[in-house]
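HUMAN: Mind sharing a backbone?

ASSISTANT:
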Amino acid sequence: MSIDVYLKMECSYTNELIRNVLEEENGLFNLMNSSTSNGDNILYWLEYEDIDFDMLYRLAKESNNKKILANSYCIRKGLLRKANFALFVQKYLSKRPDSILRNHYPETHILDLSHPDYLDEALNEAFELRDILQENTKEDIEPIPFILKASILDKASELFIFYTQSQLEEFFTNKYDENDDDDDSIANIREWIIQRYIKNPKLLSTYQNRKFHLRVYVIAERNLRIYVYDGILALFASLSYNNDKQSFDRLRHITNTCAQIDSQLNENDLVKEFFTLENIDNDIRLNIFEQIKLIIKDIFTGLHNEITIFQPLKNAFEIYGFDFLINENNEVYFLEANAYPDFKQTGNLLNIVIKELFQNLVQYIILPYFGYQQINKITQRKFHLVYDKQKTI
């Protein structure tokens, strides 16, 4: 019996790769033009807004022969919204002070701000940050840099590196427009996080000492197993890194591919596979990967008990893009997680990384859910199970 598939992703790069992987399975998947199906096995691979979560929750409670699987959980704001995640970490560390997150998640402060006029009040709530910013104004100390991030935006939107409260005030004053009624206006963001900026990133001379971060694909399935995919990407800035306190050049500091629009470099210079990078010993690579797996395991160990901010479903799976930074001592820091990651930033030269991600997803998650045996298709890149609610990994 075949599996009816309703596939509709806005990104053509992603949509075509998924379609190609499903069509390779010798007719096992029946790609539909409509979301209506009378079959007993149905796979919905859709944008978040197009998924019928009421139906998923209802079927998750019923006992019948119909099997439906969707590609997203409904509630996961505790992972994806930066302010919610920061609050989760604070609560988790109060219970688990020995958690790996204590030393592998940057110092983070939450700022609730609806207008620049209320910045003083917001900083009084974040008084520890306020005190550090005041210290940063003294001439006889080495100032601590911070980075501002909007809680609900991605793709490097509204990132700003600063040292003092006056710099922060200037940023908000320049960005806010009282006459701007646009729903996407910065005035509607309200929640921000401010993190201690990691000013000593790992730099590689082979790549002109350009800063980079790691994009790690994490797969959550059902209720709840977590896999880490070892097809890890290294996303590079366009220009060599420097720690100039007087200026913030996005092409030196921001490593998201979407922020490199003005870059003179080509795709192959901006996106590489982590395990093929030069100037990194294999033992160091493996140690970095172990740190990544332990951090991810601990995140979901804590989140799985926070049902108001993270609710896995037994008839769903989801792919997340986790971002990590490595410092010069090869210590790994978790930065943020994104749902529906932008796969097209991988480009055409490395699209095999994404294709094998989807092939592993079909083999280890989709087929077993519908009762089919794994195909055992050989891929160079693999899934690594790091968390299983039913077992101790």
Remarks:
- The domain at 108-196 is CATH 3.30.1490 (Dna Ligase; domain 1).
- The longest strand covers residues 210-221.
- Residues 76 and 339 are 9 Å apart (CA to CA).
- The chain is about 30% helix and 25% strand.
